[in-house]
């Protein structure tokens, strides 16, 4: 996590899965953080997600466009305050298109869903697939704040083979094509590694998806 002598290269982690370091400059990171803070406010704000087994996810979440809950989408916060989900802004769709284009993936539709996850130092996300969308368009992931270890695996199992990728503030990760349904998760967050000038304690991740509904 030290500053490198050379910029980190963009890397294809698996077929169809591209890590693009430092895609968002400092000004865009600040803008996106400001938007996340607005989205996190009630109604339909940041919430703790309960899983059907009786557990809770450690990353807290807010959704735009459609409300995700385990395991489907709704138009209202069916597992929270019941409010209508916040709208998905036009500019965020444009950002999604640009991001998918940067990673050289064709976008098969218009981005219309965002899941924003907030991780404090102890939060994680278990290995899972993003499989509740009908569209095969790539998922676009943007990271802000603390660095994390993002584990990107395969489509068959939650276990090896996988690659651990360090995602830092401003990094883009896009997974589509043969990797669209690959298992992935966040195995740890390095507390206190956010760029000080950003003013965020913890980590935010925004995934943009095409519903296909
Ligand atoms: O926080 C991350 O980098 C991944 C988030 C994720 O996998 C999801 O929201 O489905
Ligand atoms: Fe995911």
Structure, explained:
The protein has helices at residues 26-40, 90-102; strands at 11-14, 17-20, 60-64, 67-69, 72-74, 113-119, 125-128, 139-145, 148-152, 163-167, 172-175, 184-189, 203-209. With 213 residues, it is of the alpha+beta class. The protein has a single domain (17-209), classed as Alpha-ketoglutarate-dependent dioxygenase AlkB-like (Jelly Rolls, Sandwich). The strands form three sheets. Strands 1-2-11-8-13-6-3 form a seven-stranded antiparallel beta sheet, with helices on one face. It has a four-stranded antiparallel beta sheet with strand order 7-12-9-10, with no helix packed on it. A two-stranded antiparallel sheet has the order 4-5. A hairpin with a 2-residue loop joins strand 1 and strand 2 (17-20). The protein is globular. It starts with 10 loop residues before the first strand and ends with a strand. The relative contact order is 0.24. The mean pLDDT is 96. The structure holds 2-oxoglutaric acid (AKG) and fe (ii) ion (FE2). Its cofactor is Fe(2+). One of its GO terms (biological process) is oxidative RNA demethylation. Keywords: Dioxygenase, Iron, Metal-binding, Oxidoreductase.
């Amino acid at each position: 996590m030290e500053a490198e002598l050379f910029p980190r290269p963009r890397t294809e982690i698996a077929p169809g899965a591209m890590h693009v370091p430092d895609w968002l400059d400092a000004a865009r990171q600040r803008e996106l953080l400001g938007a996340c803070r607005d989205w996190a406010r009630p109604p339909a704000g940041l919430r703790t997600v309960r899983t059907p087994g009786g557990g809770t996810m450690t990353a807290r979440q807010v959704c735009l466009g459609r409300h995700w809950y385990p395991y489907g989408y709704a138009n209202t916060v069916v597992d929270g305050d019941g409010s209508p989900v916040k709208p998905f802004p036009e500019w965020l769709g444009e950002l999604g298109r640009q991001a998918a284009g940067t990673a050289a993936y064709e976008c098969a539709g218009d981005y219309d869903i965002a899941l924003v996850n907030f991780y404090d130092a102890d939060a994680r996300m278990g290995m899972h697939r993003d499989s509740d969308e009908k569209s095969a368009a790539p998922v676009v992931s943007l990271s802000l704040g603390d660095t994390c270890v993002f584990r990107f695996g395969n489509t068959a199992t939650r276990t090896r083979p996988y690659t651990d990728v360090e995602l830092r503030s401003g990094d883009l990760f896009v997974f589509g094509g043969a990797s669209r349904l690959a298992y992935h998760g966040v195995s740890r967050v390095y507390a206190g590694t956010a760029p000080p000038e950003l003013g965020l304690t913890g980590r935010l991740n925004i995934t943009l998806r095409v519903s296909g509904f």
